[in-house]
Amino acid sequence: MIHVVDNEEYDLCPSCGGMWLDRDEFQRATRESDVYQKVGEENTKNVYIQGPIKDPGGYIPCVRCGELMNRKNFSRISGVVIDECSSHGVWLDAGEIEKIRLFIADGGLEKAQDREIEKTKTELRELATRVEQTAFTHKL
Questions:
Q1: Which of 29, 42, 44, 78 is deepest in the core (most CB within 10 A)?
Q2: Cβ-Cβ contacts under 8 Å for 132 (sequence gap 6 or more)
Q3: Which stretches of the chain are assigned E, i.e. beta strand?
Q4: Residues facing 3 on adjacent strands
Q5: Who contacts 26 (Cβ-Cβ below 8 Å, separation ≥6)?
Q6: 118: exposed, middle or buried (C-beta count within 10 Å: 0-12, 13-18, 19+)?
Q7: Global pTM value
């Protein structure tokens, strides 16, 4: 079944409400500028609330190639576990696109980037310490 949202066609499963998005469709659906614009237009008071990550169950096959897809937490901290085929696209369970868009609108991507920056800084400090220790050992 095809569903049209904002001139984009998405493949929807009529029985479970899940949605298949090709890579480019997923990129457009989660583009920050579009998400912020839509939230501004809707003028909603919705706030993203991260719930516990549910047990995702079994892996599912890609609708294009049939290979089992990888499960990943969108943006590593959103709590929305998506199924992704590295070659073809993303399967979202019912309601997940809305959760992702709220996560983005509430600054979730910036929080994820800040977390990655802090992680990188910590790794660099640890590396610098090891380099200093190695240099000191060589001097001895």
A1: 78
A2: none
A3: 2-5, 8-12, 19-22, 70-73, 81-85, 89-92
A4: 10
A5: 89, 90
A6: exposed
A7: 0.68
